Task: structure prediction
Amino acid sequence: MKKEAQKTGEIDDYLQNHYIHRSNWLRAAVLGANDGILSTASLAIGVAAASDFREPIVLATLAGLVAGALSMAAGEYVSVSSQTDVENADIERERIELEEMPELEMQYLADIYEKRGLKKETALLVAKEFTENDALAAHVRDELGINEINQANPIQAAFASGAAFTIGGLLPFLVTLFLPLEYLEYSIYGFAIIFLIILGALAAKAGGSKIGIAVLRITFWGTVAMGITALVGHLFNVNVV
Result:
């Protein structure tokens, strides 16, 4: 019993060295934070480029922050829920097929293992053992490609996106509150780039990927988005009061 517990602990420690189990919440959090920084900063830059007053900049940025956070959370929940519905429908369909044609489904499972490199006899033996243990779980995992790591979680995704957007959006919003108005659009841009660099580095660190590539990618597209928004503000040159 102790050996089995020790072996289970070693497996858990091994899995902790990999990052794929973080992919769902990390994707939603990075998307939310990135969108929060870019959306609010771009909005603030656009208004600042067309206004000589702080109030409209602050109000527009705050409105964008609140609306964006709610929209991000709701959109993520709806989209991931749709994915969950598709997964559940496929699982139910698989359950019916296993009841109606178990032998054919077992052979199909064996074909999957054979295509992955097992010999025909070995693949059939593995398929039989998995079927005897839990046929539905085997088909959900190996035929449908659904497992605990990539299975959709609407609540988790919505919370991660909404919270991350709020945190990301608060950063440029604070810049609009406290930095001098004269060069505010440039200040917002500069600080937004710094925030994006930090976000890219943290995301890469959490995901175990290369920091340089992540930082370069996120800052490049952030610069493009904010630059276009500032250009629009200058072109319209509207004095917002």
Observations:
- The chain has eight helices and no strands.
- The longest helix spans residues 54-100.
